[in-house]
Structure formats: structure tokens, C-alpha cells
């Protein structure tokens, strides 16, 4: 920032910061902003830039609720922003439901989470609602479960899931009397998000928001026990063969409950990764607390080799996601981490078998996930739906019995939890591995069987993390032009282009709501979906190739062919995007 620009914004910026400090109830963010303001007044360009970024506009409330970097100012996650969000949500519920609305509130172990949750409980109470607070660090699926189990009108979960430690977020669900459609217990979607945002914008001075120091209800361990009982019997099956499982909580809040749930399902031989089992908001052993990231499972895999484990299960910090690794002598180090789509297919096969036995059900996955689930559903005479990205859409599918997304999210029991649930998914995967073990087969064997039956659907994402968000918007604009769009991918001509701003097919004769994304399908039926991430500063490319498996051909031959094609597609995309 130039000195002339500093002079131009000095008066307005300084006044905005001073006004914010005056009503900020948090001494930490007050001190942060006061220090930056003092440096700004002395001509420190770095401080001016930091303040300009923090005050460039309000953190936007949308279908993901709120998510952003911790710190002072309207464009950060802090107590002022959260109190205003809670007041807007309470006003919306009061308008829609009336007096006596009920809100379940939970939080993870991130910096600021408990304070944000308690502020929300206070605001809801002050607005005439009933606040039900899970007043200890709790997995996201437990909060989503409590919403439906207690028939509350809304739920708030304070979490940034697998984001870096400097972030936090605020997820909002609606249920009870607040919704009348298939979204009972799901995260908000339009028009609810805009209606809540409108009421947030109307909130006046913070001093005018009633915030009593008590009056809310603290939920006990009984709701956690109800969740464990449900999740441990999600399939109605118990593992017939013993398993040794290595479990990592990734410094999050799911370790204890996941271990208890696995034990209740018959899996007591669980070895935890001690360095990652207890909650730590700084996530000291991983670069990013996301099981998808390279190296995130290194400690778990090392331990699995030492204890001769049968299965590795990793939950992300709020335990709504689940990653799996299995023994594979062909893989480096003897273990193979499965992709989100591979786990999605495995759980989909299991769900299809259960649904077919019951005689009804629909499977669903997001448009960026593998097309294999549709083939599995068709093979069992079940319905299938494609949705937009996110479980706020997947969980709304009518008659849903299973839904997944490639980013390690699995909704295995939508009657109980209308969101991704890493703990229930862990149990289902353990049961699946145990049943296969009793049959003398492995998880890899089942993946090979699916490849033989339906063709090998291999996926591999390419994500571009950016500092400058304008890169993402300019890349999407360029890809929509004739000169910027790919003419071929992986050596196969592009045969079809779908601009998701115009909607895409939902697999049921309808169209998906408009969203920013592009789908390129080649003559060989390979596919690339490109879209901006909704929660991180990333441009994401979801690549999938389909390789037939000959009757007398080892599946590994098709896997090698798929790997070469995916590598070629990645190379084409890097050239196309200039990275």
C-alpha cells in the first residue's frame, strides 16, 4: 500500500477501528487492534494493510455459515461477529417459529470456540429462545444428531473443520418447526441463508443485544450416549471377525467418542496415535489438520506397521470426515490410503446391499464425486441422485439411505444425522473390513470386484491454493472462453462442456441450482470438474478416468493405465492454468 493511499483511507479506517474497539468485549482482539492502530498512526504500512484487510467488509454469512481467520474486525472471526450472527439467527427463528424456539449449540477445541458457543447461548436466551449447550468440546456429528433427536429448531456448531489453526467457523442447521421440507436437520441453503444474513445486517449496537449471564440448559452425557448407541448399531451388524485398528483423532475432538463407538460395535482392539489423540488447537504434528493432505497420516501408518494393524482410521478435527488406509503389499511401505471416492464406493456397496434387502432407498453423491456410485445403485435397482457440492445438498435428497462426497465425507445414517459423520462411517468401515476378513477377502479385493463389475473409476484431485483470490475468478472466466477452454484432456478430445452456471443434470430428469463450476467430458468418458472451493482459498479440479477391465486382465493393469491418464490430465490442467 502506497503512502498516498494510506493518507486517503486514514480518517475512515482509523474511525472504524476505534469504533470497533469501543464495543468489542474481547480483551485479546481489542489489544490486537489497538496495537495495529497505533502502528498505523505512526505510518506503518504493514499495520495499515492488516487493518484494511480486517475492515474491508463484513465476513459473509452464507450456506456454509461463517468461516474465516481469527482476529479483530468485521472480516475476521471474533466475538463481535459471532454475537451479531447469533442475534440475526435468533431474530430469524423468532420470526419463523415464534417465541420459545430451541437451538442446540456445540463447539470444537479450536481457539475461541468455547467463547463463541457461550456467546451464542447467551444471545439465544436473551432473545427469548431455549439454548441447549453442549458445554465441552464435541464432534460435529453429535451436534447434528442432537438437533434431530431433540427436535430442536436449529443448531449451531462452532468449528472450522480441517482448516488451518488460525481459522474458525460457525455452521448453522435448521430443523423442527423452522423447516417443512426434506432439509430437516440439514445445514442451511437458500433462501434461509439470505434471510438470516439480512437479519444479521439489521443488528444495531452490540450493547443493545440482550446477553444474560445464565439461563441456558447444559446438555449432559446422555445425548452423547444416545449418539454412541445409534452410531454403533448403524448397520444392524457387528464385526464377525476381530480387527486391530489404529485410530487417529488428528488433534481433534472425536477420539474418545469414536473409540467408545467402535468398542460398542465389537471392535475393542483399537490402538490410538498418542501424539494426535488429545485435542490441540495448534495441530502441532501436521502441516494441515486434514487427512487428505500428504503426510497427515504418517504417524498413524508408522504405528500400524509397528502393531501389525488391519485397518487405519483417521477422523478430521471435528470428526465429520473419515479417512482409511489398508494393508497393501504393492504399496510403498505396505499400506495404501484409500481415496475419498474409493471409500465412497465401498460404503455405497454396503449401503446398496442393505437397502436392496429392505426393498427401497436412494444413493446420492455430489457432482464432483465419482460416477461409480450411480452404477452401483443401478445394479441393485435403487435410485441415485447427483447434487451440488456439500452435505447441505446431499442430505436433502428424498428417501436417502446413503450419500457421500469425495472430500472424505460420508452420510451413512441420514435418519439420525443429516450431515457427514466420520464416526458412524468409521464403524461401518470396520464392520465391512471384518465381514470381508471372515470371508477370506480384503478391502482391496472388494475394490477389484467393483472394478471388474463396473469398470475402474479412478479419481485424483488437483488443487491450487492461492494467496490472491483474483487468480480463481480470472481462471474461471478464461476457462469459459473458446480460447481458454481445453480442447483435449489426457489425449482424448473434449466432447462435452457443461457450465454449471446454467445448471447441470441431477440424474433424475431435473437440473441442479446454478453454481460456479465447469464440467469437461472427453470422448473416452474421462471427466474434469473445475470449481472454486467454498471453504478455502483454492481452485479445485476433480479428475476422473474410466478404464474397462478385461475378463482375463489383472485389475492392476487397468490401475496403471488409469494412473497414466490421470497424470496426463493433471499435466494438461497445469499448462492450461499456468501453474
How does this model look, in words?
With 579 residues, this protein is an alpha/beta fold. It is 39% helix and 19% strand. The chain contains 18 helices and 22 strands. Strands 1, 2, 3, 4, 5, 6 and 7 form a seven-stranded mixed β-sheet that branches. Helix 4 packs parallel to helix 5 (113-126). The radius of gyration is 24 Å and the shape is globular. Residues 1-9 have low confidence and may be disordered.
Describe the secondary-structure layout.
Blueprint: H1 3-23, H2 27-41, H3 45-54, E1 66-69, H4 79-96, E2 102-107, H5 113-126, E3 130-133, H6 140-149, E4 154-158, E5 167-174, E6 186-187, H7 192-202, E7 217-218, H8 221-232, E8 245-248, H9 255-264, E9 270-272, H10 274-277, H11 298-307, E10 311-315, E11 322-327, E12 335-337, H12 340-358, E13 362-366, H13 372-379, E14 383-387, H14 391-394, E15 400-405, E16 409-411, H15 422-438, H16 443-454, E17 456-465, H17 470-479, E18 488-489, E19 492-499, E20 518-522, E21 527-532, E22 538-547, H18 555-577
Parallel strand pairs: 2-3, 2-4, 3-7, 8-9, 8-10, 13-14, 13-15
Antiparallel strand pairs: 1-5, 4-5, 5-6, 10-11, 11-12, 15-16, 17-22, 18-19, 19-20, 20-21, 21-22
